Amino acid sequence: MKKxxxxxxxxxxxxxxxxxxxxxxxxxxxxxxxxxxxSSGSPLDTSRxxxxxxxxxxxxxxxxxxxxQERRDAAAAKYGIHDTQWAGILNSAIKPGDYQCQNTEFxxxxxxxxxxxxxPELLDWLYVFSAFDLPTYEALFFGSExxxxxxxxxxxxxxxxxxxxxxxxxxxxxxSDDIQIVPxxxxxxxxxxxRVARTLxxxxxxxxxxxxLRLAKVITGLVNDFPSLKxxxxxxxxxxxxxxxxxxxxxxxxxxxxxxxxDGILEAMNAIGLGDxxxxxxxxxxxxxxxxxxxxxxxxxxxxxxxxxxxxxxMADAFGTYFLTHSRGxxxxxxxxxxxxxxxxxxxxxxxxxxxxxxxxxxxxxxSAWGASVVNDAADQGHILPSLKLDELFEAKLPDIVKPDAxx
Length: 408
What we know:
Residues 1-27 form the signal peptide. Keywords: Signal. This protein has 408 residues and is mostly helical. The chain is 48% helix and 3% strand. The protein contains 17 helices and three strands.
């Protein structure tokens, strides 16, 4: 079984942001990974670009393999770039009547990231070339755990997340020594054409070093042409954190188990007032996915499609909160943790028919609250439940968590 990313900003999100608008609720169900250029089905047309930009894009197109779009899409599918909890932030379809679902500060923040961009069409080309996803691919292909790593634009989350990573490995009863906690920095990545080049070489299978470096310089140049993109430090490039494992994959790529945390998502949490404990909640949630991978919990269900995805995400919310509030975990105050659990509430969606459905805001908050209640109601506050036992309790609670909650 292929294990994939647990969350990320996706091509869908990048394309939507590139157009500078949030999707109308009624239209969001019909959206697939597309931008105006990529979805047209017509030959790629650079004629409307300013001359200097046109020359750069034409050079990039000339350097790419003839089947580069197929290679791009195949890589996104192989590594699960679209199978993420953040994929629906701007792609939520509201189904009124049964569930309470509303806009959140997080979605409002995400739609503001590319506001004021002067040339949406050139931004579309960055989307077409996967520029918004390249930092994700670099962290996936080349990232590694190191004492020199920093988390956050100014390293402000480094100590917190490094310490928590060690605590998570001690807390859960799974094989976790090989799980690496890896940062992702957009500006640092786009300041190095050589790093961009090695990522493009893997993504597109380009063997010619000179050609791929030239392509990297073109894409880096386009990124740096937009002041609002901040040379790659705009949070949109690293609006991303994910768990990855090839446990059980019959065709592994040789990528080690990892959790990647982007600067952009940490900045987003801080921007909406959740910077205190939300980063720890994010890391605990992603580690919950690794518990699922090691315990083979993802396939341990009769649910399919959106309901199956919702189950794994709500379980990761519950597992993460269980760790954060447990006296032998982070030992955080329950109210403080549930306040930070709004980081998942904020990302809840109502895309009930989408395979990327991860639970409504209320369901995600309820799952976290349940995880805390298991800790608070335990007779032995120092006992850590085996992960399989915690799963057993969660499976019994899940129908209650996901039951309709609308009041009218």
